[in-house]
Amino acid sequence: MLAHQILFFILGLSVGSFLNSVTLRYNTGEKVTKGRSRCFNCSKTLSALELLPLVSYIFLKGKCRSCRSVISWQYPAAELLTGILFLSIFVKWMNNYPDYGLGVLFFWLLFVSILIAIAIYDLRHKIIPDSFSYALLAVAVLGNLFFFKINLAELLLSLIPSLFLFLLWLFSRGRWMGLGDSKLMLGGGIFLGFPASLSALILSFWVGGALGILLLLASSKITLKSEIPFGPFLASGILLAFFFGDFLMPFAFFYG
């Protein structure tokens, strides 16, 4: 059991490294599957030892070995987060085995991987690519069709959070919320079902509000007019509802 947990943690680290490459190369003209990774400052091709997830960042002390430029914290953070999430998904799946087969495990891993990519990209560029949102939606729909019984009424109710975000975008003309957030929540809502989808939305506002206050207190560069992407908060809400829905749902609805 411990060996499997370690394996999934290492797998998550590797997937996190791949997701970093996807988000950095997306829409730049570079193909993710071609070309070796390189330092974005000096363009030196990185060796295999420099590409070890998390380990290389620690070994190099967060700097390029050639030009000594600082390596973004995004790389180890995304790798570590993905590793922890893959391990957590495996544990959750094992707790439900054999009711859930290997297909469900793959479904969860794939969905969360796309969700992480969306959060990373939105955090970096303040926009959610439609291709990412549509991939998340497709995985959510197909996963539920293949592995779970879909209740039509529950399915329609799970779309309420996405509709709410869409209305915020519509009435504010994009000032309060981006349309990409609504598209993200569309896939997230179908993945979670109802009422977990509503709980995820409420939790995302709580996480966003708490972090926003901390940023205001910690940095003079952050003001109430600062543009902060909401995608990572939605992703956080979806993950919290997925892993701790039964425990957090009463609190989310009560305080929301």
From TrEMBL:
Keywords: Cell membrane, Membrane, Transmembrane, Transmembrane helix. One of its GO terms (biological process) is signal peptide processing. Residues 109-213 form the Prepilin type IV endopeptidase peptidase domain. The chain crosses the membrane at residues 6-27, 100-121, 127-148, 155-172, 192-218, 230-255. It is found in: Cell membrane. One of its GO terms (cellular component) is plasma membrane. GO terms for molecular function: aspartic-type endopeptidase activity. It is a multi-pass membrane protein. InterPro entries: Prepilin_IV_endopep_pep, Prepilin_pept_A24_N, Prepilin_peptidase/N-MTase. Residues 10-92 form the Prepilin peptidase A24 N-terminal domain. It comes from the Bacteria. Belongs to the peptidase A24 family. This is Prepilin peptidase. It comes from Candidatus Giovannonibacteria bacterium RIFCSPLOWO2_01_FULL_46_13.
